[in-house]
Structure formats: C-alpha cells, structure tokens
C-alpha cells in the first residue's frame, strides 16, 4: 500500500493576528518549539513516508516561504491555489495530481497549523487509519477525545460498538455536528460518544474521487477538465483558469456529512488546532500565577494572562485574563474571552483601508 499525504497550508491564521500576517501566516511561525508548525508537520510525516509522497496545497503568496522552510520538498509537490475555495476544492485538486503520480494510493489529509505532541502515537494511528481506508470504500477521520466542553470545534458522533484494529477502537460515524453551545458541548462530553473533529482524513484516492463525482458533480466535472488538460499545458495555468469555477465548500459539508461508510478513530496524541491566542495556555507551561510569558516581560500582580514581547519591555501591574501581544508595528490588547473575535479587528482595518497592518 502506497501512502501519500496532502497538507493544507493556504490559511491566513487571522485569529493569531498581529503575529500571524498575510505575508507570514500562522503555519510558518514558531508557535511551539524552535521550528514552524509546517516544518514540524513535515518532520512528523517523514516518520511514515518519503518527502516525495508529501504534497502541500497553498497559495502563490506562500510558495517561496515553503521553499525556504522546506527546501527538500520537490517543487512539483507544491500545489498552488489561485484563490481560496475552502477544503473540498483543495482536496479535490490534490487528489487528481496525486492520482496521476501515485495511482491507487491511500491519501492522508491534514491541516498545516495543528500541534501534535506525540508523533509516534500519531503515526501509529495513521497506519491503522490507512488500513481501515483500504477496506471496501471506507472514509476515515480522526476524532479527538474531548477533555472539556469546547464550543469552538465541530464534533463527530459515533454509533454502535467498535471494531478493534491494531488495538485501536474504530467506530462507525453516525453524524457530523456543527459547533455547539456550551450546554450542548457539556452534554456531548457526558455522552462519551462524541469527538472533536480534527479535520484529519484518510481515504483511497479513487474512493474520494468517486464520492466527489456522486455528491459534488459540478466540482467533479471541473476536476476532470483540469486532469485531461494537464497532459498538454502548464499545470499552474490550467489551475489558474479552472480552479475559481469550483464551489466554495468544505469537505465536511460537501462529502463527509452525506457519504456512507465513514469511520472515526478516537485519538489522544496531544492535539491542538491552535485556533487562537488562548491555545498557548494549553501547549505551554504556565507560571505560578497561570500566565503564559514570552520575551522581555516584567509582571507584578498579573494573573492568567498571555503576554508576548517582540523585544521591548512590557510591564504589567494588577491585570488579569488579558492577552497582550507586541510586534514591530502593532500591539494587541484584548480580554481572553474575546480571543476568537480578533478577526473583527482585521475587518475594521480593511474597512479603514489600513492594509499595511494586515
């Protein structure tokens, strides 16, 4: 069995502003450790497959960043999206390119900007997921065992008793659930058969292509047009001409919520999607007052804060539950409960035509 991997790396990481910017988004930053998240993703996957079997979908802005951060990635393995069109077109495009290079392969799809702390555990689960995906026409997703009632994630509901594959439980998926309110998230946690949707998928290329044909026929036709044109024209020119015609739709809504034979493997491997600044509390050690501190900081009577300095001294006195992030040209100050709403500031900057701060 040949395993290939698609890393989705076109996002802007706007909730990590002002550190994450249009020209240097979150996946290219050192959020945890001394390497960027996409570098960590590549190193992790190379425990399973060769770099020639790893493909990255991104936009033209980040192609040079990719080459600088991952110089050993083959140039042809960088797939350029001319515009953002959500995860279904991204995955569909990658599938026709991989299908040509590695026919009949099993395809792993992962986001570029997630933290995974247990690399070995993650790779072992991927091997099992690939085995399950190789049976019949199964689609497999990794569900994260919830540890608290999170309202910022989608959930996956499992049904029935599990199969045991390589000592891992594998459940049939009952349904995908949108982000819940707090009371519903608490009920999911109590029920025990709901898992956070990691956005990590495993399937055979021909299986996902068949589902695209069945459930997203308009997108399938455009992919077929591109696939046939690749033989006679420059790939990037074809993608530039055709990609924007595809629907702006997620793979969850377009395929996973409607397909049959979907399985979920519950996981615990130190996963975090690093969706906003508050994620730093989950992936870093806290000081004695519950703060996350990075850089040149002087704190007195400061509790449960996230503070990051770009070099100059940040001095705090008597503050609680704040996020303070200083960059070369912007200082963000907000309450932690507004961390998910940082994108509102970017919306306002666009309205004021102050794009230099984006």
From TrEMBL:
Signal peptide residues on this chain, from the entry's feature table: none
SUPFAM superfamilies: Guanosine diphospho-D-mannose pyrophosphorylase/mannose-6-phosphate isomerase linker domain, Nucleotide-diphospho-sugar transferases
Enzyme Commission numbers on file: 2.7.7.13
Keywords of this entry: GTP-binding, Nucleotide-binding, Nucleotidyltransferase, Transferase
GO molecular function, one term: GTP binding
Reactions mediated catalytically: alpha-D-mannose 1-phosphate + GTP + H(+) = GDP-alpha-D-mannose + diphosphate
Boundaries of every Nucleotidyl transferase domain copy: 6-288
BP terms from Gene Ontology: GDP-mannose biosynthetic process
Domain MannoseP isomerase/GMP-like beta-helix: 295-349
Pfam families: ManC_GMP_beta-helix, NTP_transferase
Family classification: Belongs to the mannose-6-phosphate isomerase type 2 family.
Family annotation (PANTHER family): MANNOSE-1-PHOSPHATE GUANYLYLTRANSFERASE
Protein name (database record): mannose-1-phosphate guanylyltransferase
Species of the source: Paenibacillus abyssi
């Amino acid at each position: 069995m040949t395993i290939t991997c698609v890393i989705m790396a076109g996002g802007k990481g706007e909730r990590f502003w002002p550190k994450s910017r249009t020209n240097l988004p979150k996946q290219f930053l050192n959020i945890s450790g001394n390497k960027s998240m996409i570098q960590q993703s590549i190193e992790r996957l190379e425990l399973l497959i060769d770099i020639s079997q790893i493909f990255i979908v991104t936009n033209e802005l980040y192609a040079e960043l990719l080459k600088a951060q991952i110089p050993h990635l083959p140039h042809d393995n960088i797939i350029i999206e001319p515009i953002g069109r959500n995860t279904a077109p991204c995955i569909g495009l990658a599938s026709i390119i991989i299908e040509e290079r590695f026919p009949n392969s099993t395809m792993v799809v992962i986001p570029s900007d997630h933290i995974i702390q247990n690399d070995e555990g993650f790779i072992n689960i991927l091997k099992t997921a690939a085995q399950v995906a190789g049976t019949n026409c199964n689609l497999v997703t990794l569900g994260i065992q919830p540890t608290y009632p999170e309202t910022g994630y989608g959930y996956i509901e499992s049904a029935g008793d599990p199969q045991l594959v390589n000592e891992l439980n594998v459940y049939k998926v009952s349904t995908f659930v949108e982000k819940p309110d707090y009371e519903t998230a608490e009920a999911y946690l109590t029920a025990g058969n709901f898992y956070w949707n990691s956005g990590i998928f495993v399937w055979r290329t021909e299986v996902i292509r068949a589902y695209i044909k069945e459930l997203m026929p308009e997108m399938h036709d455009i992919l077929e047009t591109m696939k046939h044109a690749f033989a006679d024209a420059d790939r990037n020119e074809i993608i530039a001409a055709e990609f924007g015609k595809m629907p702006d739709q997620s793979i969850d809504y377009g395929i996973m919520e409607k397909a049959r034979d979907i399985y979920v493997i519950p996981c615990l491997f130190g996963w975090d999607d690093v969706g906003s600044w508050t994620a730093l509390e989950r992936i870093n050690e806290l000081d004695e007052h519950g703060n996350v501190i990075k850089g040149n900081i002087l704190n007195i009577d400061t509790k449960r804060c996230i503070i990051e300095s770009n070099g100059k001294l940040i001095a705090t006195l008597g503050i609680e539950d704040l996020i303070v992030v200083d960059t070369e040209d912007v200082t963000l100050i907000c309450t932690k409960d507004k961390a998910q709403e940082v994108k509102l500031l970017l919306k306002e900057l666009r309205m004021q035509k102050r794009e230099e701060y984006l």
